[in-house]
Amino acid sequence: MLQVRKIELLAPAKNAEIGKEAIVHGADAVYVGAPKFGARAAAGCSLDDIAELVRFAHIYNAKVYVAVNTLLHAGELAEAEQLIWDIYRTNADACIIQDWQILNLHLPPIALHASTQMDNRTIEKVQYLHQTGFSQVVLARELSLDEIRDIAKNTPVSLEVFVHGSLCTSFSGRCNISQALVGRSANRGECAQFCRLPYTLQNADGQTIASRSHLLSLKDLNLSEHLEELLDAGVSSLKIEGRLKDLSYVKNVTAWYRRKLDAIFERRPEFQASSSGKTVHFFSPDPHKSFNRGFTDYFLHGRKSPITSKESPKSIGEKLGTVKDLDRNFFTCSGKIPIHNGDGLCFFNNELVGFRVNRVDGTKIFPSEMPRLERGTTLYRNFDHEFEKNLSKKSAERKIEIELTLAETPFGFSLAGCSGASIAVAFPKELAKTDQRENIRTQLSKWGNTPFQVTAFANRLTDNWFIPSSVLTDMRQKLAEALLRANVIGGLSCKPLYRQQSVDTEEIAGQARNDKCVLMTCKYCLRHELGYCPRAGGAPQASPWRLLTGNHILQLSFDCHACEMQVINSPQPPQGG
Hints:
Layout: E1 5-12, H1 16-24, E2 29-33, H2 47-59, E3 63-68, H3 77-89, E4 94-97, E5 111-114, H4 123-132, E6 136-138, H5 145-153, E7 158-165, H6 177-182, E8 199-202, E9 208-213, E10 220-222, H7 227-233, E11 237-240, H8 247-267, E12 271-273, E13 278-281, E14 295-296, E15 318-326, E16 331-333, E17 344-349, E18 351-361, E19 364-367, E20 378-383, H9 385-391, E21 396-409, E22 412-416, E23 422-426, H10 437-443, E24 452-459, H11 469-489, E25 518-522, H12 526-529, E26 545-549, E27 552-559, E28 564-569
Parallel strand pairs: 1-2, 1-11, 1-12, 2-3, 3-4, 4-5, 5-6, 6-7, 7-11, 10-14, 21-24
Antiparallel strand pairs: 7-10, 8-9, 8-26, 13-21, 15-16, 15-20, 17-18, 17-20, 18-19, 21-22, 22-23, 25-28, 26-27, 27-28
Helix pairs in contact: 1-2, 1-8, 2-11, 5-7
């Protein structure tokens, strides 16, 4: 007998509107921020919005996870406990947490997911999280496919991995740079994004290795070509990053991954979507058309370079081609991709330079203001006007397929659908003068704006009974309401048995302003990225290295045995220029 695994496509949402569209475009679950204590302080949802989103999601048996994943001060624990109870009352399906102190609180029977901020990258850690009562664990982004496979073999807990979006330079939960340098803690949802700044890199002799380069800014993750490998490795939840992203981004990227997964499910019946309904997209999704800094598969298949977007932390979009001819106020492009009025184009000239297309006349492209282009310059499009216009409209539809059965009862007629939902009406049985079959089929097929679509209809009437169109319409509407109730009410997860923890997370108060402390611990390594890795045969450079930005001096420490890099706050003045 075929053993079926339910697979979850998990999409981000900064509000209820985006969450609903993520589900319409194919998400099996969405994650949102709580009103407080979320790792994206600017992306919190009100409890009313969460409840509204839950009602919508549960129609499709999709789930809503709420992030309460910052570290907490002792004085905030009572408020966090109340908040989790409030989230539970919205019927949300799980809370995503980072702080172990939450396990000591009086919690409602809601499932808990271990945030990636808990630094989940070893078999032992994931086993312990499972034993503690977590029902799903978000793995560290830095894990290889082999490491993920080993974890899955050694624990039954549901594993969630990031497959798309922005990458942090440090292991999640082990980044203190923002707190140390400007008093804004990433573990409190207030990251100042020091990894996106330009740095000058010096060796111990004060010689410049790289100047004004975004050395800590990583490309964006894209594992869309590796989904089947992840499923075979034991992953159950595939997560798209982006609770700060806009509506068009979530629509486009969710649709891209939905299509990729559905293609796999067609070939591999042992995998099925974890929610109900089929999505039809009214556009062709393409992740290159949404915000991206270029793509990487990161460490999924081992360490490789380059994985940084050193030239710029901004979106480059999709590659168009190169500048072919130039004139005073227009240029032509060698590529075959159509360019539209209103498009945003960009190119690299030490840094990313952007400009807007005013109009297109045949092959001639007229910018609103002519940039300093040269023949052969590579052009990118980071804003596709026509694509965005299509996404601003209704761009997908999701329907739950149902099979209807019309039958008789002793006092009238019944109409049944899926999920055991059925309704009955009392109505006298009188033979009709004309054949009623076509009218019955027509009236019971009009499901309009409901989430349902009839794929099969069985007429079990024993004779040509007359049923007015108004009665058929009323039966259809009442069955739709019954189907919605059956889906929306659903059932909450049982409460896990949480073990008492004695972990003291008050250390967050002292994370920061030591003169010399570890600010970031990274699998990403600048030695390897720049070709100086001694294990890979790179030329040696005098150590320690230093990163300079503004008034800040950061020292780099390399642990070649662990193949990790640490960024350390250094009070020493820089040498050289």
